[in-house]
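Q: I'm teaching a short session on how sequence maps to structure, and I want students to see two examples side by side rather than one. Could you give me a first protein with its sequence written out and its structure tokens following it? Keep the formatting plain so it prints cleanly on a handout.
A: Of course. Example one:
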Amino acid sequence: MQRAYNQFVDSMRYVKELDALFIHLKDTLHLPNDLSDILRAEIVYAVSAMDKMIHDLVRTGMIEAFQGRRVRTSKFLGFGVSTNTLTTILTIPVPPPEYWFEQEIIERHKTSAFQAPEKIADALSLIWNEQHKWHLLAVAIVIPEQDLTTALKTIISRRNQIVHEADLNLLSGVRNTLNKSETDYVISFIEKLSEEIFKAVK
């Protein structure tokens, strides 16, 4: 679990290096260029870092549950494995069963994005029995639950505009504006939310 969070922190360090580059180019060198793509990259990488952390937390927690070192949630018990994985576990003694179970998790989750509130809650149900996940996270962050999930949805929507729509307004075809204060908010929000998710499931 700690390793997953440490990787998140490392990934966010790269985001902050991009931010430092933006500040240097804009405020020190006073370049006249439009540097907003650096800010867009910060948003994309921050969301990606959170997504990966949740993937890693879920995979690690599921392996711990498989080994009997963590409470097995009802969603975990309903996860199921392929016949191929089951046969391999039963017939091949090396590597150990948890290795093959991990491969199953990776294969099943490799196309999943754990970014939207409902997707995150669903994924965390594999390792965390709490029924009111977003309420507990909101209490920890000291923000109303509705505000927390709405803010995350807004960030994910903007991330998707950048990644899938070149950050263009679909009606006007004009690029959406983005300033540093908006990006700073996103980075701070993602850091705090990810920290609280880690603390809740570790």
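Q: Perfect. Now a second example for contrast.
A: Example two:
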Amino acid sequence: MTRPSGPAPEAAEAHVGDGADVLALPGTPLAREVLTFVGNNSSAVVLNHCVRSYLFGRLLAVHHGVELGRDVSGELLFYSCVLHDMGLTEFGNRNQRFEVDGADVAAEFLTVKGLAATEVDAVWEAIALHTSFGIAGRREGLTMMTHGGIGLDFGVGSEFLTDEQASTIHRAYPRLEMAKSLADLITAQVEARPEKGPPYSFPAGLTRQRATPPHHTEMEAMAARGRWGS
């Protein structure tokens, strides 16, 4: 079983600053179950990326004046960020592009656990659209914060983050060559089952880039150019 390398969940909706509270995770029973579920089915690379995305997403919300618990549910942000790459796991590898497979897995898991249908649908949308640049950022609320938190883990729009905040998160959840590992997972799925990369989709584009010299995807290049590296 893979477990996160950072601290155990703490109180939900904690104040976000420059200390240990930057690493605070929701401590509700369902949040703990989500973390265990992802930890049991993901590599450390995927799990760390997903948790970092949530932690960055919380900081992004503060930066935009979005109050978690009032404007956007911090619990739902945790679910959407931490579950967003379940489509890249063996458990979640089905017959659709990984974003949709991951959204379906998340929706099924949260529904069984008793989450309300409207909340499940919000998480589904946030995960399904998380690679949809130009769309997710227009949806506001949960989808925008999820997309933004994931983008921050690639260094996109990170100027407002302090070095102390970033260092605290990366010490707890190391990057482990995240961009290359994710690109490997996405392209391997499409190469094995072409229906996983429908025309003009994000997975299809990555697979074309990986197949074309110098066999380096734009996602990897974006991370390499970014503030955190791969």
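Q: What should students look for in example two?
A: Point them to this: The first helix runs from residue 29 to 41. Also worth mentioning: The mean pLDDT is 91.
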